[in-house]
Amino acid sequence: MRFPLHITTDMLKHQARQAMKGNRRYPFVMMLEPLWTCNLACIGCSPERHTGKLVDRLPVDVCLRAADDCGAPAVSICGGEPTVYPELPELIEGLIARKRHIYLCTNALLLDKRFFGKVPPHRRLTVNVHLDGMRATHDYVVDREGVFDHAIEMIKESKRRGYHTIVNTTIYKETDIDEVEELCALLTDLDIDGILLSPGYHYEKVERDIFLTRQDIETKFRRVLEFSPRFRIVSTPLFLEFAAGYRDYRCSPWSTVTFTPRGWKGPCYLIERNFTWDWDEFWNGTDWDYWESRQDERCANCKMHSGFEASVVMDLKKSPRDMVRLAAWNLT
Ligand code: SF4
Hints:
By secondary structure, the chain is of the alpha/beta class. It has helices spanning 5-20, 60-70, 88-97, 111-115, 135-141, 147-160, 177-189, 214-227, 237-243, 279-285, 288-292, 305-315, 320-331; strands at residues 29-32, 74-77, 101-106, 125-130, 164-171, 194-199, 256-260, 263-267, 272-276. It has a nine-stranded mixed sheet, sandwiched between helices. Strand 5 (164-171), helix 7 (177-189) and strand 6 (194-199) form a beta-alpha-beta unit. Helix 2 runs parallel beside helix 3 and helix 8 (214-227) runs antiparallel to helix 9 (237-243). The chain binds iron/sulfur cluster. Iron/sulfur cluster binds next to helix 12. Residues 251, 253, 267-268, 270-271, 291, 294, 298-299, 302, 304, 306-307 line the site of iron/sulfur cluster (SF4).
């Protein structure tokens, strides 16, 4: 299966419970940024996310309370670089105790020193390594030589130790799609458990012109669609068709809620408009109708999976054909 059975069934149960309560909007994934400290400074990353001081990190109990408040069944621990977070083992333990599915989003540099041997493999834990291309491209994007080779060694070690291991690849303006295909083939040889492909988003604070217009995204994802059936890509085929411009969705920014060292960030993972420590204030105070409509100029070139994978799922009830197609795809 593309997604392990226990994740699929927990997600379906979550949707059924929310439907019974009459909720049309609810979080699927919590993006947890316990720190804005990083051991890299990637050229596509908002500077705020990697220049923070370690002393300003969130305490574990504050992270766990936020996970309780939002109730999302999946928690993506990112940042910053989560392996730099000194309390990572306690945080993961607390989230597993709450029956959450955890995605540890990492550049893999410190997996050997700070993670393996400290956090044991668990069916609820996925190691998600960020790789933006083959060696030359990835090392350019992360602005340091040797990172690609180390990440590949860490992926092998993660698999060897029994962690569920996937790779997350962002596609930028200059990304050569043939190279993405080459990367997918390499990762397939390493028996990777999943490959997540998403277009880059132009953060307001990133000055370098590496991001895609909507037309660029569609052109590149048409090529991705051609080779995607050959690899274990976990971006859904309906999302890939959306990215390629073959179908359209409203955004679901409420599906992926973001908790940071400044509190809940609204309206979405990408746009920093408001911060608050209070869940109710964030959830009830965000104009979801407005952000779903994508009328804001900052949404014009956005096709991020954080906004649209949930839209794919929510729209399945309108199309039994899509529902069958997605179920069949998940079984492959
Ligand atoms: S379209 Fe993109 S930028 Fe706009 S609200 Fe959705 S996720 Fe955020």
